[in-house]
Amino acid sequence: MNIQKLIRPNIRKLAPYICARHNRATGIKLDANENPYGNVNRYPDPNATEVKKILAKMLDIKAEDIFVGNGSDEAIDLLMRAFCDPGEEIIVLDPTYRMYKVAAGINDLKVKSVPLTKDFQINVEKTLSSISKKTKIIFTCSPNNPTGNLLKKKDIFELCKNFKGIVAVDEAYIEFANEKSCISNSGQYPNLVVLRTLSKAWGGAGIRVGYATGSPEIIKALNKIKPPYNVSVLDQKEAVKILSSKTKIKKILRERNRVSKILKTLVPKVYKSDANFILFEIPNAKHIQEKLQSAGVIIRNTQIKNCLRVSIGKSGENDKFLRALSNLLKS
Ligand SMILES: Cc1ncc(COP(=O)(O)O)c(C=O)c1O
């Protein structure tokens, strides 16, 4: 598959912005019109070298095959900018993360929404038959937000095999699942790109660092069009610190189990979660969500009929949520 051919012609031709420090970052820095005084007076490393070094080691991939961005949301936007001309199309598998549609709207792209099956898996046949000449990217999300379940890998790969465009797998929540990342399969599928983030399992949502990896040509295209200083000095520093420490996944998984068990005693249906949130069904979902909010507990309404999504917080926070919900259901 020729990935180069999939890249928008204007992006293929584009001469990227190259900083004078691109190849040598040490020495007297008189190239970027910075102020010589201050703590954060220097522009950040455009290549996020130290962050990539750690990620490459952790994931057993090459540093040059990684794009580091301002959250994985930036990777979602840049994929569209690299591969889709205005008026072209992406496919999303609903219900899913709503940013794909928003980013598509910003980029003037059409969105074809293909429903997931009843058990929230990919309807491969329907997805493939929805592809048109204008379809450039299919976004899959595993574990999926807001349903919380993993998608079957074989279905994702079926899309890769049968679609001549880009297949993105958003693995924002993969660390919470009992499943290996699709990163290890990117060698087999040149059109596969995997999106990951420090915002969830790593507890780094406040610094806005996400990354993408996959076929070198896709990653090269993202790195070519990203703003040169897209990840701040402070964010890069903190990202290195976070990635060098331990995640709190075990604690969250224990709480996920506990909350899920108690929720099952309160509401008609609790979905199995492979992520750090739980989807559950409840009559009058919107009303319940608003009542909870008035009681000081903010959870998320969803596109799924009578379903709410609650994130797993600290044990005391989860207790407050469960108590508030239980009180509401009694009243
Ligand atoms: C599926 C999914 N992808 C991406 C993101 C955004 O991640 P980031 O914080 O890295 O931009 C989220 C955030 O909630 C998400 O749910």
Layout of helices and strands, plus pairs?
Layout: H1 3-6, H2 9-13, H3 49-59, E1 66-69, H4 72-83, E2 89-94, H5 99-106, E3 110-115, H6 124-129, E4 135-141, H7 153-162, E5 166-170, E6 192-197, E7 210-214, H8 216-225, H9 233-243, H10 249-264, E8 269-270, E9 277-281, H11 285-294, E10 300-301, E11 307-311, H12 315-330
Parallel strand pairs: 2-3, 2-4, 4-5, 5-6
Antiparallel strand pairs: 1-7, 6-7, 8-9, 9-11, 10-11
Helix pairs in contact: 3-9, 4-5, 4-8, 10-12
Bound molecules: pyridoxal-5'-phosphate.
Give the strand tally. Answer: 11
**Overall 3D shape:** globular
Question: What percentage of amino acids are in beta strands?
Answer: 15-25%
Which ions and ligands are bound to the chains?
A: pyridoxal-5'-phosphate
Report the helical percentage.
25-40%
Give the quaternary arrangement of the chains.
single chain
End-to-end Cα distance: 60 Å
CATH superfamily of the largest domain: Type I PLP-dependent aspartate aminotransferase-like (Major domain)
Number of domains: 2
Descriptive labels:
331 residues; Aspartate Aminotransferase, domain 1; 2 domains; four-stranded antiparallel β-sheet; 11 strands; binds pyridoxal-5'-phosphate
Structure commentary:
With 331 residues, this protein is of the alpha/beta class. It has 2 domains: 3-243, Aspartate Aminotransferase, domain 2 (3-Layer(aba) Sandwich), CATH 3.40.640.10; 249-330, Aspartate Aminotransferase, domain 1 (Alpha-Beta Complex). The chain is 36% helix and 16% strand. The protein has 12 helices and 11 strands. It has helices spanning 3-6, 9-13, 49-59, 72-83, 99-106, 124-129, 153-162, 216-225, 233-243, 249-264, 285-294, 315-330, and strands at 66-69, 89-94, 110-115, 135-141, 166-170, 192-197, 210-214, 269-270, 277-281, 300-301, 307-311. The strands form 2 sheets. It has a 7-stranded mixed beta sheet, sandwiched between helices. A 4-stranded antiparallel beta sheet has the order 8-9-11-10. Helix 5 links the parallel strand 2 (89-94) and strand 3. The longest helix is centred in the last third of the chain and has 16 residues, at 249-264. The protein is globular, with a radius of gyration of 21 Å. It binds pyridoxal-5'-phosphate (PLP). Pyridoxal-5'-phosphate binds at residues 71-73, 97, 141, 145, 170, 172, 197, 199, 205, 210.
